[in-house]
Amino acid sequence: MSLGKSTINLPAIEITQGGRRKIYAFAVDGKKLHSFAQVSRLGRGTDENISGYQRPEVLSHIAEIRNYIESESPLLPNAIVIAFDSTVTFQPLDTGVSEGAPRHGHLVVTINDESTLKVGWIVDGQQRAAAIRDAQVDTFPIIATGFIAGSVSEQREQFILVNSTKPLPKGLIYELLPATETQLASHLEKRRFPAYLLERLNYDTRSPLHLSIQTPTNPYIDSSIKHRRGFGGSRTSSSQSYELQKGEVRGFIKDNSILRMLENSLHDGALYRCRLQYGETNETETMLEVLFSFWSAVIELFDHAWKKHPSKSRLTHGVGIVSMGHLMDAIVDRYRASGIPTREQFAADLKPLVTYCSWTDGYWNFSSVNQRKWNEVQNTSKDIQLVANYLLVQYKKNVWAK
What we know:
Number of helices: 10
Oligomer: single chain
Strand order of the largest sheet: 3-9-6-10-2-1-8-7
């Protein structure tokens, strides 16, 4: 044994799946789990690339589990899932076992007492693991399932596969999608590319939407407000906004609003046209060129309605984001013979519509018998269609027809 290192031998059963992948079922004292396994916190590095993959601990949920563990006869039968790095090995005890059959043996886990890095990452069960860690009990054996992961990307993929059917925040899954490569369920596959475009819109410094989209790593923060309740109900502390300039706002647009706008356009709008015209090699950068130019023009013309919480502006609300996406598709279609519209062309086409938009006050005059106060339009399919159709009619009447 090396100085500062110790070894744990965990009795385990090795099971082969898919002809080659190995998983290991074992029991361990939950109070010792954090000596070799940790939670990989979701965040972004200085290069804005995603790091980690777990959501923050839910303190109220952990407290409930901890109280149960401290009760008279607790039972936690579900296994905690752990991804190990390549330093963890399996030493079989069985001999003469047929190929692919389960084998008994030991998982050999080396603990470096001088390092904060662990050899295992908790893929599923972080709340239970935290509750056991904090519980006032001397010991609490648990069942665990482990596998050897070749990379952090593989850990993320397993995290998504394990948790996608559970009531996790959808934003967490969507933010992880661009950093995965494995085949996922069809509903997640459909959102992988839109999620990548969203990531570029939010974290590319050239983007007019830079840090404007709310995600788990970019929560809603208004530097002028000491405490503000986020969209999901969680309280954001002012300590999170110490790097913001005075008056700066981040994460004021819901990620799902942007995803819906992107998916609509990818289905049969401007982004779909980019895919047809420019092919796979140049399609992504061309799509981003369209998005950057259009939203730059929107911000320029509707500056008074930008950088506001959706409760204060229907432009940053789902109804505004998705409706403006339909307008982007129409403008690109008008310029289809001459190529991608520039920011100046987008702005010129949008300018005649400014007087028809009631993002922050006034009324939407949809017809002589349908007038709605600015904040009465909601993020529903019916209201989005109502606003989108109204803007498209005004666009064709005041711009396209002329």
